[in-house]
Amino acid sequence: RRGVAALGTGRHDEAIAALASVAADGPGHADAADLLAEARRLRAAGFRRRADAAEAGHDWLAAEAALAALAAAEPADRALADRLAALRRHHAPIVFARGQALYLLGPDGGDEHLLTDAVPASRPIWSPDRSRIAFVSPTGGGRRSPAALYVVDADGRNPTRLSGTAHPNAVPAWSADGARIAYASVAAYDLAADTGLIAVHLVDLATGRDADVTSITGRDAVTPTWSPTGDRLAFVSRPSAAASDRAGAAGLGHVAVLDLASGTIANLSGDRLPDVVRVIWSPTGDRLLAFARSRGIDGGMPGVTRLLELGAADGSLTPIADVADAVNGGWSPAWAPDGARYAFLDGPSTLVVRDRTGGETRIETAAALSGAVTWSPDGRALLLAAADPTDPSVLVDLTNPTPTLGNLAVPFDPEWPTGTPQWGPLTAPPLPVDPTAGGEAPVTPPP
């Protein structure tokens, strides 16, 4: 009865859930099976109507959401899958900040519009399902003052302040389910005096609860990144400014992993990555990319950047690239959404796309690039941000065996507070994952 009532009032998801349980009881419930098929047909028709209307109105995010839901319900429909892929490649919006306001822009150069200028905005980051955007809002105190952490809906509505203690250079990290954000907090750090402790905080979007999860190490903690199942966080751990005054804080940088169920923190890289500055977890397995950068010698010889693969299960370390005098690689490298490959810059204008077996494709762009690399949501293209936003950024289409290059004008804020463009999310939506060392079930943060 509940399923029939839901079907009669257009609550198709509820109807399907109720009727499926009855139909599963066996052939004696033929009516339930017929009603279930009808509920699924009506739901699919509703998705198609919404997708058609959204595409006609250039509401590409709504169109994608409807098509993605339809594709999940009808996985064998090849034409539908192609339609969704084409929309994601040609219309999935890019978010960036200009004049400290958030904008969306289509990868075809069209549909640019202001998303919000309610508060100053920098470092926008899509949620995994691209229904919301997290960003850092700088204060009038500049680099030496804490920033605020916000989220806003993808239509510009409901800007919500989550924290007032974000590091001004923080890059928020969404969990794959979109329920939590990890960020570098200066709640216990004085930016002006350069003393105290930078810690990774977790904020729960449903409750607003903000928790410090790394201060127990007595070391600074930055650049958090989530395991695909949400059970662990990796981050860069390094001596704090007051390390000599804090027991156990001596030593150089390393990659640490926090188990959220137990609250324990392990040193994954040992003393092999003293100059590590960023770590990025694969969206589908127990591999991480570690980006390291030495500072050079007193402004003389340039520093050297390194890229390495790090195994979360055993701490294995595999060198990938060494680049002298490279561009700022703080946003590079980037995993593809399916975790099958990643991309990084090898020098100021050369893109490398590397797969999990070690195969590489090198692409010369003949452009001056900033170092920011972002994948399209479908993983078939890349956007390489220009070093000077008055120059066009570079679009790299990987659909065919021979990649093709194009230009896209993205007038983002290049200096601090940066508005670097982001096309697809840094954290991919939940996908089937390889067995992991820390378990499969997502867990909640420790109290």
Brief write-up:
This protein has 447 residues and is an alpha+beta fold.
What does this structure look like?
With 447 residues, the protein is α+β, with helices and mostly antiparallel strands. 17% of the residues lie in helices and 35% in strands. The protein is built from 5 helices and 27 strands. The strands form 7 sheets. Strands 4-5-6-7 form a 4-stranded antiparallel sheet, with no helix packed on it. Strand 4 and strand 5 form a beta hairpin. Helix 1 packs antiparallel against helix 2. The radius of gyration is 23 Å and the shape is globular. The protein starts with a helix and ends in a 39-residue tail after the last strand. The C terminus is likely disordered.
Element layout with pairings:
Elements: H1 2-8, H2 12-23, H3 30-56, H4 60-73, H5 78-91, E1 94-98, E2 101-105, E3 113-116, E4 122-126, E5 132-137, E6 147-153, E7 160-166, E8 173-174, E9 180-190, E10 195-204, E11 210-212, E12 220-226, E13 232-238, E14 254-259, E15 265-267, E16 276-281, E17 287-293, E18 304-311, E19 317-324, E20 334-335, E21 341-345, E22 350-355, E23 360-364, E24 369-375, E25 381-386, E26 393-397, E27 404-408
Antiparallel strand pairs: 1-2, 2-3, 4-5, 5-6, 6-7, 8-9, 9-10, 10-11, 12-13, 13-14, 14-15, 16-17, 17-18, 18-19, 20-21, 21-22, 22-23, 24-25, 25-26, 26-27
Helix pairs in contact: 1-2, 2-3, 3-4, 4-5
